Structures are given as C-alpha cells and as structure tokens.
Amino acid sequence: MHFVGVDGCKAGWFAVSLTENNEWETEVFSDIFTLWDSLWGKYQADLKIFIDIPIGLRENTTKERLCDLQARKLLRKRGPAVFPAPCRQALNEKTHKNASSVNKEYTGRGLSIMAWSIVPKILQADQLMCADENARSYITEIHPELCFYGFAGNPMKHSKKEEEGLLERKNLLMEIYPPADRIVKHALSKYKRKDVAKDDILDALAAALTAKLGSEKRLIKIPENPEHDSKGLPMRMVYFSNKKEILI
Length: 248
Hints:
Elements (H helix, E strand, L loop, with lengths): L1 E8 L2 E8 L4 E6 L2 H12 L3 E5 L14 H10 L20 H12 L5 H5 L1 H13 L1 H6 E3 L2 H9 L10 H14 L3 H11 L7 H16 L5 E10 L5 E7 L8
Parallel strand pairs: 1-4, 4-5
Antiparallel strand pairs: 1-2, 2-3, 6-7
Helix pairs in contact: 7-10, 8-10, 9-10
C-alpha cells in the first residue's frame, strides 16, 4: 500500500507518500488532476490519499457542514483553523468580493479571506471528485490540526505559523514515526520556501501518517454517519487516535 498525504502549497499540491515497508518519497504537483493521474497510474488499488481540502459542499442552506463544526469543537483554541467551507456556487467567482456576495446569498455568510485563498484548489478537488468515481473511493478529506490532535490526544499548544508550533508538530511526528525527521529535512532541502512552506511539509506528512496508521475500523470519522451533498460527495473528515503507537 501507498499512503499519501497531500497539502496545498504555493506551487500547487505537496505530497508525501509512505509505504508499509517505510519507504517514502515527496513530490509537488501543479494541479490535483496531475496528482491523481500520476498516483492512480502508478499504484491504482494499492493507494490511499488523505488530503487537506474540503470535499462535499453545501449549496443552498445556512447550515455549516457538520464535520467543520465537530472539528472546531474538538480543536478548541485551534478551532479557527477550520473555517466554514464555501458553497459550490461561489467557486467560479473571480474576485473575493463576488465570491463572498454569492456565498452570502446561498448560505447567509460571507466568505473569509482564508477560505477565498484556497477557492481555486477547492474547485479543482470538487471537479475531480464529481467527475471521477475512482477518485471518490481513494481520496479522503482530513484537516491537519485534527490529525495532530489525534496523535497528541489534545490540540496543539502553538500556532503552526510560529516557530514553537512548527517544532511542536515536528517533534510529535518524530515521536510517532522516527523517519519523519529525514523526510522533513529532505523536503526542506529539495523545495524552495516560496513553493513549499515548512508547515506544508508537516501537514502533508501528518496526513500520510494518518492514512498509514488508520484503517476503516481504526479511523475516527466525524461525523460517524456523514452527510452527502447534492453530488453525492460525503462531508466528512477522519483522524487517527493512538498516540502510544510508534512506527519503526
């Protein structure tokens, strides 16, 4: 099996792939379609992709996705990292002002700058998941802060935008998976920070480890019985919780 964690980065999408034999590799893809075609072409059924992007979107309701609400509740002070996902109608707008106006029309809420900044990536993911049934079966939504919460048993103390927060997350990953240090050092030397930030590396690795540690019976799903959007996509996140298990 290949367990792939994916996080958006300035250059596109940063991916960390782990195997059952503790082999690993990293790669940057310009778009999610190239990522999917490459990974599916190489691994097909021997593949799990855990990705930090909203999958399954509201269209005409003031209700937020339950997975976002539940994740925020678990994460407490780190909860604001889980922002309300935009509605599907807002994804094709070209400006933040227009997207926010459309989002307010359909959901009763404007669109935050944080959400707007990743709308192009949300659109890519939505297009892929709506068009490709295989992708639906092999790609799962995660949130990095929820992954770290699961590993540690509590929310992170510091923001990932602070040096203390980066070190806190890196040390946690190394505790669970000792090769994490080599993977992070490799990625830091291979990619420029203008393309892949340090927190992108840590987030993608956390997603890959969640896929590697988890299984259908051991992953915690929020909500347990997911809602589905109008396209049939599940609105659900997963995380793994067993901080005492160490992979070597």
